[in-house]
């Protein structure tokens, strides 16, 4: 397939900090590609270099067949960018914001209403941006990035600080954008978001890509046990640890959780003891892969 983005041997240093250290990846045309990593992993710096906002110290970057640095005017109309922190023009309504952004690309003013409808903000067209909720402002930010119909869209943590309902609503919008044929590159801290939306993800830490591939493939490649949970008290802790196929068990007073690589044997044994009240079976997730690669220590 056609490569929309090609990155090879990318490096960027700030003083003593090696923010990006030999990053290499490619994004295919029409792909929904995620870049994941803990704070300080280098994902935002990588994205800014690919967007043409920063100059790399070393390495090669090609976006839609062109180098993004020095700032390439030929790419501006083909790329849309939603930054981690969005700023709007003061005292303008949602419609006026979009008309202003669109005018920079020669887009007719009427396109603003079409974009507001697309992101579910038609009823907020005449509301000033400072009156919008966090989720509404994020949707407007994405509309501004799309108003000129770009082929490639960069989204840097678009659902940060949104409540669950607003996040899910934004997911639907992002899926629709992708099904229209646009290539999307997303950075996020939310593993469930990446697992649901992305065709492939690159997991970064310390400026390097540690693993790259489709979320389901990365999860299948992780040698992690399944976890079977039932209500606490349904089965004794020691009895649970002795079940056929059980690798271990814990009881926090609310749920009894059994770790196993043979869930069918454990469930069968529990059924024989009539101990399946509220049973839940959970396999490995992308979050497990992420923690396995980057560690569990807190990073402020």
How would you characterize this protein structure?
It is a single chain. The protein is of the alpha/beta class and 300 residues long. The two termini are 39 Å apart. Among the domains are: 3-78 and 150-220, P-loop containing nucleotide triphosphate hydrolases (Rossmann fold, 3-Layer(aba) Sandwich), CATH 3.40.50.300; 226-283. The chain contains 11 helices and 13 strands. The model has no long low-confidence stretch (mean pLDDT 92). One of its GO terms (molecular function) is ATP binding.
Please outline what is shown here.
This protein has 300 residues and is of the alpha/beta class.
Largest pleated sheet = 6 strands, mixed
General shape: globular
State Rg: 23 Å
Biggest β-sheet: strands ordered side by side in the sheet:
5-6-7-3-8-9
Number of strands: 13
Q: State the helicity in percent bands.
A: 25-40%
CATH class of the domain at 3-78 and 150-220: Alpha Beta
SSE series: EEEHEHEHHHEHEHEEHEHEEHEH
Strand content: 25-35%
**CATH homologous superfamily title of the domain at 3-78 and 150-220:** P-loop containing nucleotide triphosphate hydrolases
Membrane topology: Peripheral membrane protein
GO cellular component, one term: plasma membrane
InterPro entries: AAA+_ATPase, ABC_transporter-like_ATP-bd, ABC_transporter-like_CS, ABC_transporter_ATP-binding, P-loop_NTPase
Domain ABC transporter: 5-231
